[in-house]
Each structure stands twice: as C-alpha cells, then as structure tokens.
Specification:
46% helix; 5-stranded antiparallel β-sheet; alpha+beta
C-alpha cells in the first residue's frame, strides 16, 4: 500500500510523463504532415533557380530519398535535360556558407560532375553580393563532394 505522499508523487510523475508523450506525439505528427509541403516548396525553388541558370533547359521530377549522413541537410530531385543526353541528372539544394551567411544553393549533378546553378532566393540585391566569385571556395568544395556523396548513396549505380 502506498502512502499519501508517495501516491501524490506517483500521480505528478504520471502527469508529467503523459504530457511529455503527448507533446512528442504532436511534434512527430507535425513533422510528417509538413514533410510534403517542405519538399514541394524546395522543389519549386529548385525549378526557379534552374530556370534562371538555363531557360527552358531542365525538367525537375520527384524528390529522391536516400540513406546518407548528409541526407538531413540536402534535398535531391531527379531531373533531366529537355534537349540533349539521356544521362541521370540530379538537382541538389543545400545550405552553403557565403559572405552573407548561409544560403540555399542549387547544384546540377551527374556521375562524376556537379555544376553550380545558382542561389535559391529571390532577392536581387543579394545576388550581387553573393556572386559565384565571392563564394568560390564553398562552391568548389560542393562541386567536388556532391558527386561522391550521390555515388556513395547509390544514385549513380549502373543499371
């Protein structure tokens, strides 16, 4: 038999743990509900950026899910050239460090190669400050690393 003070402590602990479980459940539900919204919003930004890079030259398809340590910080979309080769291409959006802080950058990748397509924002004043020349080092880094990451994730496996 529990004493009155032990019973009160047990009730308080139960209420606290119940509230914690409910809060975690609500957070998990919101993450799953907003995942598609985030993906479609990023896809739209990728499409706009690639369109500025090469007008009418690319078609962006669905998001590619893959297992990688960097998967949380980059989103990958299957894409293809409207005219040209039939290679597997991927559009990747990720945050890179720039002179003005972190910014979303879009790269077009195929096996062994990545090309910087531009920054995914609509601020014309920032485009002057954050030109490719001012961010050359992080861009060059990701141009060499993205093909390796995507290859390691199995996206460029021979069919």
């Amino acid at each position: 038999m529990l004493s009155l003070s032990s019973r009160k402590k047990l009730i308080n602990a139960s209420i606290l743990s119940g509230a914690f479980i409910i809060a975690c459940s609500i957070l998990i539900v919101f993450v799953y509900l907003t995942k598609n919204s985030l993906s479609s919003g990023l896809k739209q930004k990728v499409e706009q950026t690639v369109e500025r890079y090469e007008k009418g030259g690319w078609k962006i398809y669905n998001q590619v899910e893959f297992k990688s340590q960097t998967a949380a910080s980059l989103f990958v979309y299957r894409c293809s050239k409207v005219r040209g080769d039939n290679s597997d291409y991927y559009a990747v959006i990720l945050r890179i460090s720039t002179i003005s802080g972190a910014a979303p950058a879009v790269f077009l990748c195929r096996k062994g190669q990545a090309v910087f397509a531009g920054y995914a924002f609509d601020n014309g004043k920032m485009e002057d400050v954050m030109s490719k020349e001012n961010s050359a080092t992080p861009i060059k880094y990701w141009e060499t690393e993205l093909p390796l990451i995507l290859n390691k994730a199995g996206l460029f496996n021979e069919k």
